[in-house]
Amino acid sequence: MRVRTNPLDDAGIYEPDIRAAFELCRVLHAAYGGTSYFAAQLLPRAKRCHVDSLYAFALFATRSADNPVAAWSLRDRVCAELDAGTPSDPITRALDHTMRVWGIPVEHVDTFFRSLLMDMTVEGYTTFEELREYVWCSAVLGLQMVPLLEPLSDDAPERVATLAEAFQLTNVVRDLADDLRRGRLYLPSADLAHFGVTRAELEAGVMTPEFQELIKFEIGRVRALYRFAEDGIEAVTPSSRPCLRTAAAWYCSVLDEIEAADYRVLDPRVAARLSRRTMPVASAGSEPFGLRRKAGDPLPGLLVELSA
Question: With DSSP H G I counted as helix, E B as strand and the rest as coil, what are the percentages for the chain, rounded to 5?
């Protein structure tokens, strides 16, 4: 009879403090990760704890730094500790271990904090290129994942990162109504002007034929990114492909559902149905590459303690 070992044993993690840190990351990922946690279970057991640490840190940073001063202070502390190899809290300790094992540069962490600052200080974007700059920063988790996925070609990192970017842009379309309630509009204002749609109409929930054409156009852009990223799935080691295929299929099905609803993402019934849509795993909370904190979303007490 085969005895199942702890995945941390498979990863060669035996030191008690580090094991406890990774177990904390696993608990947070399972509780808040949704699609990300489910997809990670399709990776080899030795890699799953490292995905847990990447996600848990993104959650920790997003939920702990709720203003620009706090975000930059946390960024300075974390980046200095990672450079020195002296992490002061369990989540950063697990992240430090993962980054050293897989050769993930500290610059990726700095990039993620840039996205947090943009989310706090920028209420809208003029062009799609400006939006992509924000999305690229906030989807850096996908770039951090590249070494774990073991790319087989030179262009695999760009394609995997583009897949993460497509995930984030899918969230932008899906969460349009929720973001408007928070005073944010991620759709480029140049696109609104091109289709004759105003922000006032969006905030009032007005869905004209022009609005539907706008959403159709944005989905077309996202699907183009998925098509570019698709080759990246085949450009990683075979054991990593089910994870990427599953996440990509789930996010593409979100776009399918929006199209089936005639692009009426401002309709409260459609928005509610999309927001409740989860992978078949017992979890709740944020999306894997869209960790923006929402109004009324509880901040886990543990994260408050760690950020103090």
Answer: 70, 0, 30
Residue 119: the pLDDT is: 86
CA distance 83 to 86: 8
Paired tokens of 297: 């979303």
Domain 14-293+300-307 has CATH 1.10.600.10: yes
| Ranges of each domain in the chain | 14-293+300-307
Among candidate residues 91, 15, 104, the one with its CA nearest the CA of residue 55: 91
Mean pLDDT, 10 residues at a time, over the chain (308 residues)?
75 95 95 89 96 95 87 94 95 97 95 90 92 89 92 92 93 93 93 97 95 98 95 94 93 94 92 67 33 38 46
d(CA 308, CA 34): 27
Positive or negative, the CA dihedral 175, 176, 181, 184 is positive
Residue spans of beta strands (DSSP E) within 18-108:
none
- Cβ proximity of 213 and 192 under 8 Å: no
Query: Tell me, what's the pLDDT at 299?
Result: 38
Q: At what angle do helices 156-174 and 140-149 cross, to 10 degrees?
A: 140
- Chain centroid offset of residue 244 CA: 13
Rounded CA-CA distance 10/261 in Å is: 45
pLDDT for 269 equals 85
Q: How far apart are CA 306 and CA 89, in angstroms?
A: 6
